[in-house]
């Protein structure tokens, strides 16, 4: 119950664009959340992106994806976060996520562009 309450407060602050308060309540909600309640991690991940902290954002979205393996939005966000990562393994994960997204949602132009950019980077690195 406490996780849901703090999550709802976080959402309210998020909608009002009070990102500092939203961050605090999303974070609090993750501390109380049972393993199957991953919405606070999705919100907290968004706040980390807003703050420019892609490492912590990725950790949050990985938790969401672990609980909801086929989650389209989460795969898309992780794909974007990992696309320009210095670690080749993360870029490979980005490619896999974007490939799944484009297979599930072939009309998602953004995902196709992101996948093409990842493939292009991989191609450039292989040929140099």
Automatic annotation (TrEMBL):
<dbReference type="GO" id="GO:0016593">
    <property type="term" value="C:Cdc73/Paf1 complex"/>
</dbReference>
<feature type="repeat" description="TPR">
    <location>
        <begin position="38"/>
        <end position="71"/>
    </location>
</feature>
<dbReference type="InterPro" id="IPR011990">
    <property type="entry name" value="TPR-like_helical_dom_sf"/>
</dbReference>
<keyword id="KW-0802">TPR repeat</keyword>
<dbReference type="InterPro" id="IPR019734">
    <property type="entry name" value="TPR_rpt"/>
</dbReference>
<dbReference type="Pfam" id="PF13181">
    <property type="entry name" value="TPR_8"/>
</dbReference>
<protein>
    <submittedName>
        <fullName>Uncharacterized protein</fullName>
    </submittedName>
</protein>
<dbReference type="InterPro" id="IPR031101">
    <property type="entry name" value="Ctr9"/>
</dbReference>
<keyword id="KW-0677">Repeat</keyword>
<dbReference type="GO" id="GO:0000993">
    <property type="term" value="F:RNA polymerase II complex binding"/>
</dbReference>
<dbReference type="GO" id="GO:0006355">
    <property type="term" value="P:regulation of DNA-templated transcription"/>
</dbReference>
<feature type="repeat" description="TPR">
    <location>
        <begin position="3"/>
        <end position="36"/>
    </location>
</feature>
<dbReference type="GO" id="GO:0006368">
    <property type="term" value="P:transcription elongation by RNA polymerase II"/>
</dbReference>
